[in-house]
Amino acid sequence: MTAKWTRRLFRHLCTLPSAVKKHFCYGAIQRIEAAIATSEQQHLGEIRFAVEARLPLSALLAKKTAKHRALEVFSSLKVWDTEHNNGVLIYLLLADHDFQILADRGIHQHVESQGWEHISRHMEHMFKQGKFEAGVIEGISKISEHLIQHYPAQGENKNELPDAPVVL
């Protein structure tokens, strides 16, 4: 085992599930859900937020990264399964101090990697200040700008995915 891997294992073992509640109390979860709901009234896209305190031991032993886990969550939450292929997932892994923004191909073709990087930098800045709720809401706001531009609400705007954040 390398020292880096050992430190990561230790961080995951020491990060308790209660870490999510420390950064995202019930009120914060409700406000994030409201931000997603308000956002989705303005466009045809779908935004999901998922937060996880730590990876399961099996995932750590398989050396899964936050990006690998985010892809699994993207699939399990069916973010890829929207009518316009414009779902976006914000995934936060507290033990690794890492997060990912994953977008389906419809919206990704418009925003591209540079656009997601720009949003990530804003969120990362807030996370480093300990402003986790504000960082997520800022991310939702910035993602919404792109979704409004490329998929504005028109006619029936059905909500294809739940707005509630997912605590894994």
UniProtKB/TrEMBL annotation:
- Domain named TPM is located at 29-144
Q: Which domain of life is it from?
A: Bacteria
- PANTHER family linked to this entry: BLL7265 PROTEIN, UPF0603 PROTEIN YGCG
The molecule here is called TPM domain-containing protein
Q: Which organism is it from?
A: Methylotenera mobilis (strain JLW8 / ATCC BAA-1282 / DSM 17540)
